[in-house]
Amino acid sequence: MHASYQNEIYLRGLSGEAPPFTTDATRLDAAAERVMEPGPFGYVAGGAGSGDTVRANREAFARWRLVPRMLTGATERDLSTTVLGTPLPAPVLLAPVGVQSILHPDGELATARAAAALGVPVVQSTAASFPLEQVAEHAGPRWFQLYWPNDPDVCVSLLDRAARAGYTALVVTLDTWTLGWRPRDLDLAYLPFLRATGVANAFADPAFRAGLAASPEDDSEAAVLRWVGMFTGSDKTWDNLPFLREHWDGPILLKGVQHLDDARRAADAGMDGVVVSNHGGRQVDGAVAALEVLPEIAAAVGDRVQVLFDSGVRTGADVVKALALGARAVLLGRPYAYGLALAGERGVRHVVRSLLADLDLTLGLSGHRSPALLSPDVLRRA
Fold first, then answer.
1. At what angle do helices 260-268 and 290-301 cross, to 10 degrees?
2. How many Å apart are CA 234 and CA 104, to the nearest integer?
3. 3-class DSSP assignment, residue 69
4. 3-state secondary structure labels for all residues of 236-253
5. How far apart are alpha carbons 305 and 63 in whole angstroms?
6. Which tens digit of pLDDT belongs to each residue from 311-364?
7. What are the beta bridge partners of residue 306?
8. Of the candidates 323, 316, 239, which has an alpha carbon nearest to the alpha carbon of residue 276?
9. Sign, CA torsion 379/380/381/382
């Protein structure tokens, strides 16, 4: 069971060995800030505007409380599930986090290795520091996240490359067709893409390279500027979705869904899933907490599409609450990014194992043998 990580930590303590850093995911940001440069830390930790949506995401979890049940035989638990054909050891995936080399030199490679060792799927970002093919060599189960470029040929090329590299589902981020107002980055004038970081998928892409007057190796500045304009792209419409279906054979999920009508339109358009998310509060300051809209979206379309969730997940209790409110699985973001900054591959493994152990114990101690048994009835609104 995942909970055995707790025993492992205690037993290692007998020989004087402590975990590499805190097991409390709500303190990872403070630990990471002590070892990171201000620009990279601000890029990961920061949110849009005043940070109101970042705070709202966490506050939303506090408004729901678990009501534990006793004597349910929850000693033996099974957290495994399947989402869109991908087996999961627990209902947790690693969310797409870009430019991971600003956190650790091994970046996405370290994250992929850690996830593969645990059998946890990783959702690979378009905005990666290493080409998607190279990451795939180190990854286990893997999905590809698309920042939809405004050049159709480049888009098709990215999708073809991801399919050939064994990425089995496509996660299309809808809420970041241009960057939100992010004061922490702006105050430091720090945008890693302009420093040719997080552009590896573009620079390795034949369709992108074909549109350049000189190769990225010979004129990186021109290549970066072209990609930044294409990377932020332009806002699409529902009429554009058939293009993705035409060029991707596997499941497609739309990430960034926060309105009930958008969830219904995604289902009507034949999408396979939605990720209820506000990008961790990084795009629209003052937006509704993702958890607030999860129950209504799950109730409306959960029988037609797979409903996943991210934004604000830190603890095992958070995962249980999201699952009880209708999510099939959650995506973990900032915590594993901080783990990467703190200790590379080992740090990512520690963060993910800690979350899985916390989830396993919280599920059992609240009286449930499986995530499938969770429903809104296990919660009370505070």
1. 40
2. 31
3. coil
4. CCHHHHHHHHHHCCCCEE
5. 27
6. 999 999 999 999 999 999 999 999 999 999 999 999 999 999 999 999 999 999
7. 273
8. 323
9. negative
Nearby residues of 341 by Cβ (< 8 Å), 6 or more positions away: 32, 35, 36, 40, 41, 44, 103, 104, 347
Q: Which of 199, 136, 194, 127 is nearest to 162 (CA)?
A: 136
List the catalytic residues.
279
Nearest 5 degrees, angle CA 347-CA 196-CA 189?
A: 85
Helix (H) or strand (E) holding 377: none
Q: Is 311 left (phi over 0), alpha (psi -120 to 50) or beta?
A: left
Is the full-model pTM beyond 0.90?
yes
If phi over 0 gives left and psi between -120 and 50 gives alpha, with beta otherwise, what is residue 342?
Answer: alpha
Contact (Cβ atoms closer than 8 angstroms) between residue 91 and residue 319 = yes
- CA-wise closest residue to 283 among 46, 99, 59, 103: 46
CB neighbours of 329 closer than 8 A, spacing ≥ 6?
Answer: 81, 83, 88, 91, 92, 93, 308, 309, 323
Neighbouring residues of 240: CB distance < 8 A, sequence distance ≥ 6: none
The token duo for 250 is 């596997």
* Distance of alpha carbon 56 from alpha carbon 362, whole angstroms: 23
What's the pLDDT tens digit per position in 226-250?
A: 998 887 778 899 999 999 999 999 9
Query: Measuring CA to CA, which residue among 256, 261, 378, 251 is closest to residue 322?
Result: 378
For β-strands 81-83 and 86-88, DSSP reports them as: antiparallel
The answer to whether the CB of 46 falls within 8 A of the CB of 184 is: yes
- 114 φ/ψ angles, rounded to the nearest 5 degrees: -65, -45
In the structure encoding, which two tokens stand for residue 184, read together?
């922490």
Rounded to the nearest 10°, the torsion over CA 312, 241, 302, 278 is: 10
Token code pair at residue 58 = 């966490």
The residues with which 332 forms a beta bridge, in sequence order, are: 94
Between CA 277 and CA 293 the distance in angstroms is 9
* Domains and their CATH numbers in the chain: 4-64+78-368 (3.20.20.70)
